[in-house]
Each structure stands twice: as C-alpha cells, then as structure tokens.
Amino acid sequence: MSTVVAAKPTGSLQGARLPKWFPYALAAGSVALGIGISFAAGLESNIQWGLIAAILFVVGTYVIATRVEGKRQAKDRIATSLVWVAFLLAVVPLVSLVWVTVARGVKVLDIYFLSHSMGVVADNEPGGGIYHAIIGSLEQVGLATVMGAPIGVLTAIYLVEYGRGKLAKAVTFFVDVMTGIPSIVAGLFILSLMLQFDMQPFGFAGSLALAILMMPVVVRSTEEMLKLVPNELREASLALGIPKWRTILKVVLPTAIGGITTGIMLAVARIAGETAPVLLLVFGNPFINNNPFEGAQASLPLYIYQQYANSGGAEAAYDRAWAASLTLIAFVMILNLGARGIARWKAPKTGR
Amino acid sequence: MDITTKNSTDNPPPAPQPTAVEQKRASRGATRPGDRIFLGLSRGSGILLLTIMAAIAVFLTYRATLAISKDEGNFLTTFEWNANLNPPVFGIAVLAFGTVVSSIIAMVIAVPVAVAIALFLTHYAPRRLSGPIAYVIDLLAAVPSIVYGLWGALILVPNMNGLFGWLNDYLGWTGIFSWEEGAPRSMLTVGVLLAIMILPVITNVSREVFRQTPRMNEEAALALGATRWEVVRMAVLPFGRSGVISASMLGLGRALGETMAVATVLSPSFLIQGSLLNPGGGTFAQNIAAKFGEASEYGRDALIASGLVLFVITLLVNGAARAIIARRAEYSGANA
User: Fold this and answer.
1) ipTM above 0.95, yes or no
2) What is the pLDDT of residues A86-102, one digit of tens each?
C-alpha cells in the first residue's frame, strides 16, 4: 500500500497496476525461456520444459506483481492463473475423449454396421455390426424403465403427498443410501438370486438390476419436482371437493410432468451406459436374441467391453468398439438434450 | 392485526377446531376406493424400495457366508484369489488396498481441479464462455464409464509412458514412484482415469453451490477492497464448503464402485505393489468383472462376498458424507 504514492505521482486514487498485456507477455516469455533451458540442458521430455515454463511464470508473476502492485494483488494473480491452468488441464483429456470417439468411431459406423450382428464374424476380423447389441440394450433398458419409473414416481408421490412419520423417513434415508450403490453390487444381488434359484443368464435379469439403479434417481428428481408444485393448486382442487387421488393425478402430476419426464430420461441415459450388471447377468451373445426372457443377450456397453477385451488387440475389433461407443454416446446425448429440451419447454410458469 | 381478525372472525377460529373436522374429512376421503387404492400403490412402492434394500443386504450376506465358511485362507488378510480350487483360498487384502489407493489418487487429483474449474465457471470465466462450458461439462458427466474405459486403455495408457519415465527419474528414490519399465497399466493410471471420470460430477455440484453464494457477501467483500481471490477465499469457499464435501463424496462413491474403467486399464495381480507405477493390485469391482467369466458357482459366491465388502464400504462413505453435511450445515454462513 505504501508504494501507491511512490508509483503514481499523478494523484490518482488507483494503486499502480500492471498493464493488461502483462500476463500474456510473461507467459510467452516463460514458454520461450523454458524451451531454451531444456534445449541447453538437453532434456527430452515435453513435461519438463512445460514444468520449467510454469514455474518461471508463477515465480515471475509473483515477484513482479509484488514489486509493482503489492502482495495481495500478487496472490490474486497467482490464484487467477492457477484457476485458468486447472481448467485448461482438465479440458485436454475431456476434449481428447470426445474427439477420439468421434474420429475413430465414424470409420466403420454405417448402415451395415447398425443392421448386422456379430453372428458369424470372429472377434479379430473386420465386418459384423451391433444390431444384436442395440436390440438387447433397447429391450433391457426399456423393461427396466417400465419397472423402475412408475415405482420411482409413486414412491416420490408417497413421500411428498402422503409421507409423514417413520415409514417416510425410512424411505427417504434408504433412497439416499440406494443412490450410492455401485452398479456391480446391484448386479451381484440379482446374481445371488439367480444362483439361489439356479437360473442361466437372460436379458430380464439385467433389467432388474438396471431398475434397481434407476429407482432412487427417479425418486429424487420427481420429489424435487413435486415440491415445486405450489400448494395453492392442491388446496384449490381439494376445496372443490375433488378427492386427493384425483387431485394428484389431474392437478399435481400434470403441473410437474415436464420435470418428471426430464428426470426419467436422465435416469434412462444413466442406466443405458451401465456395463457391470449386464456383464454378470446377461452375459453377452454374438447372435441376435429378441427374447429378453430366455437366453443370453448382448448390449451396447457390454459389446464395447467384449470387443476390447476378447479380441487380442485386433485393429478391426477396436474400430468396432469405437463405433459402438459413438453410437452409445449419441444415444445418451440425444436423451440428455431431449430431457433438457422438455425441461425448458414444460418448465412450470413461475408466479406472475 | 387484531382488528382485522376480529372483523373476519369466522376464518381464523376454525383453525383449532378444524383438526377434528379435517381428520374426519380425511378419513372419509381415505375410505373412497380411489383414494385407498392410490395411497396403497404409492405406499406400496415405498415399502417395495425398502424391501429391495433389505433383500440386497440379506442375499449378499447369505451367499457371502456360504463362501467364507469354506475359505481356507483368511478372508481379510490372504493375498490370493483361488476361489475355484478345492478347497478354495481367497482374501480381500489386495482388493481393499487397491480400491482405497486408486480412490485416494483420484480424489487428490480431481477435487482441487474440480473446485478450480467450478470457480473458473462461476467467478473467472467470461460470461459468454461459462454458459456453454458448463453445459458441455454437464453432458460429459453422462458419458458412460465403459467409454472412459476404452479411451483410458487405448489413448491414456500409451500417453502415460512419458510421465512415468519422468517420475521414475526424479522421484524414483521415494519408492512410491519407481518404475520397472512395463506397460503403464498401474494404480496411478487407474487413479488418473478415475479422476478424469469423476471430474465432471464434482465440478457440476460445486458449481451449483458456488453460484448460490449470497450476492450480498461477495459485494460486501468487494466494497471493503478485497481482490477477487480474497472474495473467493472469504465469501465463496466458506459458503460452499459443505457442498464441495458432499460433491466429493459423490465422486468418491463413483470411484470406489467403478468397474469397467478399472478393468480395461489395470493389469491386475494379487500383489500389493509398493510403487504406484508398477502394474499390479486390483480393486473389488475390477476383480469381480475379471474373475466372473471363469468362476465356478462357488467362485461366484466368493465374488459376492467381496461385493458385500464393497457395499459396506460405500454405505460407510455415504453415511459419513451425510453426517458431515448435517454437522456443517449448522455452522455454514448460509443459515446465519
């Protein structure tokens, strides 16, 4: 603070500030110096000159800013650059993930790929497709949604509209606990049932595990949405002598339907990508099996895993795995974007 | 107030008495078949959920005791997994170690970075940039774990060579970072991949929390002449602390139970490696996925036993998170 007077004799109330271009200039300088030093010292690794440049930049910023602007400003500058660095650092892998999936996925992704199974194609040969996996995924996820969504929504209705007392508290607590169950544990639970009753893998077993994973997510999101419905609406309906169940069905649910649909779609997107329970319970099958109640089935995430793990490093199998990944991501993203669209379109009108 | 209520006496006074009337009405309402069915359905769903939770605990425990009773080794301390042998020998020591270590690495990397990104989005990024970026990170949280696994195995692993060599050269003397020139399919790679996976999750929740920092607090700090970092440190972080903790616990839960991403990246063995860079070790979920294909019926029971341990660990973590949040809520600035 004492430097203010010395640095700014013009009588301005502002403290001395470094020019706007200062961080950029310093960054460029440190990168150049970093490369120079590593050349001079004969270092090969990219990480090293990056690290040297980063250290130069941080130390340089701190020293220069402390001299010109004071310690507090220097700390502020360091924090700003650290936050930017963290962001850029995290962007690299995430961008790489999306980029690689798209770039390598489009190689074999075509109508043939989408409409044929792996039936007679060996895992390390080119050809084949994911038709059987798409069928399996759609059936398993569809059945899971048919079971999980209504139970989840009804539980949320119970918690918001009826729930008082011990039962509601217990349900709330265990829904929280259930949200944290790893998917493989849900798979093991159904597996233990299958071992108990001596059953072979089939699609519906996977659906059961997926439904268990889906329920708590649906309960949570639906609960939030139902809580947003204004009480005046319920009271108005009840005051007209309408029974509670019709009030819920005709007034409360329609008001919140946008948010509930969004929640269900997000839950579907989540379970569509689950691999572990499907691996344990549905087992995988290179042939087309349209019946989820008998015999092993395939599913998209499981197909990706098996193409990766069972092919012994064949390029053709990796290409198929990437193409299936792209299909799966596209499916999940469409569900996500659709859900957001519905949420915006049906968003409850806030008070006037 | 008094005057107005006296003028419209008929409205407030019913308040005490109506409880009886309302109860009668409510009970009459409940006798309507529609109401009774609907209440039954919704309460039934709630009870079904509780039953499922109980069934999970009971069945896992039952199958696990079947397995453990025949185990020739010590279930907690044996460094082996030969559940198909007769008599079987298996133990979870390596798995527990690997699960904890990989999750710790993931948390150490992911939490600071995620908090920094959340701060970046709420307080540092240009407004026009922060909206779309937040949206994209939201979508990235939905990318299935198997895709992260595929990316980790085919892209991340080859790219870890440089970092591993560097760590070995300069930090190898610590023992933790020594490397015997194998494929970098080790605990550190797993931890890095898990960190990348849970990053969007932690970021999203933290961002929501930071965004709700009372505007008043921030402006008060600014008015006192605080720099942006001081605003963050004095107003934003204290307010968001419990939110960040719960976000981290959410991420930790994911990391502990993650199966496919670990199974594709790690080359497992039943050894506890002193170095994070040498391949080996395993996690509960990864071991289940890897050993399941070749497991006999008895071997499956053994895997269920290890799954039960994972289940208990995640329950403890979730419980701890809830306890922390409940306690912090009393002290947080939000309620002041």
Assistant:
1) no
2) 888 888 888 899 999 99
Which DSSP symbol is given to B89?
E
Total beta-carbon pairs less than 8 A apart between chain A and chain B: 262
The interface residues of chain A toward chain B in range 2-61, judged by CB-CB distance below 8 A, are: 45-48
The nearest CA of chain A is from the CA of B109 a distance in Å of: 10
Instruction: Indicate the pairing of strand B89-90 with strand B81-82.
Output: antiparallel
pLDDT over 60 at B11, yes or no: no
> What is the model's pTM?
0.87
Whether the CB of A176 is below 8 Å from some CB of chain B: the reply is yes
Q: Which CATH topology does A114-345 take?
A: MetI-like fold (1.10.3720)
How large is the greatest C-alpha to C-alpha distance in chain A, in angstroms? 89
Report how far apart, in Å, the C-alpha atoms of B155 and of each of A24, A312, B51, B149, B165 are. Answer: 31, 17, 43, 10, 17
Spans of all domains in chain A? 3-105, 114-345
Q: For A89-148, what is each residue's pLDDT tens digit? A: 888 888 899 999 999 999 889 999 999 898 888 888 888 889 999 999 999 999 999 999
Q: What span, in angstroms and rounded, lies between the C-alpha atoms of B94 and B273? A: 9
Domain boundaries, chain B: 16-70, 81-335
Superfamily of B81-335 according to CATH: MetI-like (1.10.3720.10)
